[in-house]
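> example.struct
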C-alpha cells in the first residue's frame, strides 16, 4: 500500500497528466454519459472526477506540497472518489465528445489502479478476481472443465497447429454460449483450418484485471498466452469479445515486451474478409428488421464499426436499423468497466434504454456483438415491460452461412 502522502501521479503517463490539466470543466461530456443518464448525479461525472483527482495531485505533489509538507487527504474524500471512479462504465463516450480530446477510456483504469494501490478498493467481487484467475483461469471462478465442453459443436474439428487461432474468452464461454458457438460454426463454414488452446491453456486475457486497476498479473498472463499461440504457429488470432480484442491489440505488446508474433482480428473482420474472398455465402433470406448495437470497446476502442454491418447485410432480406447513437457515438449497454459486478442497478437501467429504443424503432431483433452486453441486456429484459429477441451477430449468421466449395 502506498504512503498516504505519496504523490498521485506515479501511475500516469506524461500525456495523461497533460489530459488532466487540459479539462476545462465545460460539462459537455455529461450529455453523453450513460451513468449520468440513469443517475443524474454530477458528483460522479467526468469533470468532477478529474477536478477531485487534480486536487489530490496538488495536495501531495504540487509546488506548495513539495516546498512545505504534503497533505494527508481525508479518507472519506478518497473513498467517495473511489466509488465515483468505479461507478463509471469506462465506455469512453465522454472522451469521444471531449473538446480537448481526453482519452478517458484509457485514463480511468489508471485512476482505479491508484485507488487499488492505496488499499481503498473493497469490492469483494473485484478483489477476488486475481485469486480466481490463478485457480481456474477465469475471473468468475467457474470450473476449468466447463470452459468448452457445454457449448462446443461436436462436428467441428480443431487443428493441432494452424496459422489461424481462435480465442473464445471467459465471458463468452461462461456467459454467452450461443455467441461463441456461433463463432466456431462460422469458422468451420469458412473452411480454413483453425486451432485453439486447450481448456487448461486458454486463460483470462487480462482485461478484467486491467480495467479494474489490478495490473500485477498482466505481464505473466500475456506472456503465457502469447507463447502458447506462438507454439501453435499462429499468425492471426481471432476473437469476438471486444474487451479481449482491445487489450490484445492495445496492451499485450507492452506487457509482452515487444511486437506480438501474430495479428489480432475481431471475428467480424475475419468473416467480412471471408465474404469478400467468396469463401462463404448466404442464400437463404431473413425478411426482418434488425438493429445492431455497437459495443464500446469495439467501436470507440479499436474502431471496428463497418465489419459487423457488412456481415449482417450479407443476409438477403434484412433491413438494418440504427440506434440514434451508433458507431463511435454508441451508447454503452451498461455492462462495461466491471460496473455490472458492482453497480448492477445502473447497468440494468442503462441496458433497458437500448431495449426501449430497439422496441420503439419496431425492430424484430436486437443484435449484439459482445458477451458482456449479451449477458447484461438479457438480464435487463427480465421483469421489464418491453421485450425483444436478443441475438449475437455470429449466432445469427451461423444459421444462414454456407461454404463455397472449390
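> example.seq
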Amino acid at each position: 500500500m502506498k504512503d498516504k502522502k505519496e504523490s498521485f501521479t506515479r501511475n500516469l503517463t506524461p500525456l495523461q497528466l497533460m489530459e488532466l490539466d487540459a479539462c476545462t470543466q465545460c460539462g459537455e461530456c455529461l450529455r453523453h454519459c450513460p451513468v449520468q443518464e440513469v443517475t443524474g448525479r454530477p458528483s460522479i461525472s467526468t469533470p468532477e472526477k478529474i477536478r477531485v483527482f487534480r486536487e489530490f495531485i496538488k495536495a501531495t505533489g504540487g509546488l506548495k506540497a513539495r516546498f512545505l509538507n504534503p497533505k494527508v487527504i481525508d479518507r472519506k474524500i478518497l473513498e467517495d472518489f473511489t466509488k465515483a471512479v468505479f461507478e463509471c462504465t469506462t465506455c469512453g463516450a465522454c472522451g469521444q465528445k471531449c473538446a480537448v480530446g481526453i482519452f478517458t477510456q484509457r485514463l480511468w483504469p489508471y485512476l482505479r489502479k491508484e485507488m487499488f494501490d492505496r488499499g481503498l478498493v473493497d469490492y469483494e467481487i473485484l478483489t477476488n478476481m486475481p485469486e480466481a484467475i490463478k485457480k481456474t483461469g477465469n475471473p468468475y471462478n467457474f470450473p476449468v472443465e466447463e470452459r468448452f465442453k457445454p457449448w462446443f459443436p461436436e462436428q467441428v474439428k480443431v487443428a493441432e497447429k494452424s496459422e489461424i487461432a481462435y480465442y473464445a474468452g471467459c465471458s463468452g464461454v461462461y456467459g454467452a454460449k450461443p455467441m461463441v458457438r456461433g463463432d466456431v460454426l462460422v469458422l468451420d463454414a469458412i473452411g480454413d483450418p483453425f486451432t485453439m488452446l486447450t481448456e487448461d491453456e486458454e486463460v483470462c486475457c487480462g482485461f478484467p484485471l486491467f480495467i479494474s486497476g489490478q495490473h500485477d498479473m498482466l505481464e505473466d498472463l500475456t506472456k503465457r498466452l502469447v507463447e502458447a499461440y506462438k507454439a501453435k504457429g499462429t499468425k492471426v488470432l481471432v476473437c469476438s469479445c471486444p474487451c479481449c480484442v482491445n487489450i490484445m491489440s492495445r496492451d499485450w505488446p507492452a506487457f509482452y515486451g515487444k511486437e506480438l508474433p501474430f495479428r489480432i482480428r475481431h471475428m467480424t473482420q475475419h468473416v467480412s474478409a471471408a465474404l469478400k474472398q467468396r469463401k462463404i455465402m448466404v442464400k437463404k433470406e431473413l425478411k426482418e428488421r434488425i438493429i445492431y448495437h455497437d459495443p464500446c470497446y469495439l467501436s470507440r476502442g479499436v474502431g471496428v464499426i463497418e465489419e459487423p454491418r457488412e456481415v449482417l447485410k450479407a443476409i438477403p432480406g434484412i433491413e438494418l436499423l440504427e440506434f440514434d447513437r451508433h458507431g463511435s457515438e454508441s451508447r454503452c449497454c451498461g455492462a462495461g468497466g466491471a460496473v455490472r459486478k458492482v453497480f448492477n442497478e445502473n447497468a440494468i437501467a442503462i441496458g433497458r434504454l437500448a431495449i426501449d429504443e430497439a422496441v420503439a424503432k419496431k425492430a424484430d431483433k436486437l443484435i449484439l456483438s459482445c458477451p458482456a452486453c449479451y449477458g447484461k441486456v438479457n438480464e435487463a429484459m427480465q421483469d421489464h415491460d418491453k421485450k425483444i429477441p436478443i441475438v449475437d451477430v455470429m449466432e445469427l449468421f451461423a444459421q444462414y452461412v454456407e461454404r463455397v466449395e472449390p
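> remarks
Residues 125-273 form one domain.
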